[in-house]
Amino acid sequence: MGPSSRLCAICCSLVLGLMPPASACTGISLNAENGASIAARTVEWALSDASHDTLVSFPRKHDFIAQTPEGLNGLSWTGKYGFISLTAYGEPYGPDGLNEAGLYVGMYYFPGFADFAPWDRAQAARTVSVGDLMRYMLSSFSTVEEVRAGLDDVRVVNVEDARFGGAALPFHWKVQDETGASLVIEITDGGEVEVYDGFLGVITNSPGYDWHLTNLRNYLGLSPVAELPVEIGGEVFSPFGAGTGLRGLPGDFTPPSRFVRAVALTASARPLQTGEEAVFEAFRILDSFNIPVGTTGAPDRISADIESATQITTAADLDNRLFYFHTMSDRQVRVVDLKKMDFDTPGMRMITSGAGRAQTVRDITP
Predict the structure, then answer these.
(1) What does the alpha-carbon distance between residue 263 and residue 289 come to, in Å, rounded to a whole number?
(2) Beta carbons of 168 and 223 less than 8 angstroms apart
(3) What is the pLDDT of residues 186-214, one digit of tens each?
């Protein structure tokens, strides 16, 4: 994102009386002992309620046309797989998606580093927008290796969206398949595509993925094992309680700190027998990353229509083709079973989750 685009985004936020968007999405992966692979994440966006709890489904053999800065004149393709995706502001794509072959794709905010290819009308036939890239991958591929090979066929450009103040949409992507393999795709320096093997399936935001991996060397002493008592001058000093091995684990909400925390909590996760166990363990781990709006912006910049910058938390069981989520306003978990969905009938369909704007509370008063 260039200086003018950053200035545009900041000015838009000030004019609206809102705080800038929280670049704070966190993604993890867990694998169960029965082979189930889980991709889970939080979704943060602090400008307003993005209505992520509405999903969209696309059938097999759906015809797509990608958007460019000049309209719907980009890449044209026919999808192979049916898939579902979260939506944002009613757009037919969003931050998270899963296809019927068990491929997961997530978009994560990447400000200051994402730099897409310049628009070139001569290459319109292979050009896609940020949202189109996600739909292209979900509709076309079943494994991360297929995605890796297919990236050479497309060129990603920025397409301004009035819903986001006309600013660039700086994202990078995590892709995972049912084997548990994952990769991270970053596009920088005017369209240069970098692909990294996902480390434990963890991803946050800026800076680049290679920087986060290097930064882990600053935390090599972290351990789930508690420190032992120490005798000094005839006195024995014992830890006050559990957790001493993780003393120094960063607890703030910056992307580097969340990356380290996500790696530590993922690496120390207890053994999990089934995909369902792994899903709910992922939800528990991600509770550590929920962001109250008051912690990331000045009081006069807080949006009035959201309770938390963490608007939705998702967990996808790739083997069983199950997509779970709960929202900031209703933490009752909802699930979509892709095995039961009709992906043969033509046409895009919206899926209204029924998530309310109040927490679901069960009264057990005798």
Answers:
(1) 12
(2) no
(3) 999 999 999 999 999 999 999 999 999 99
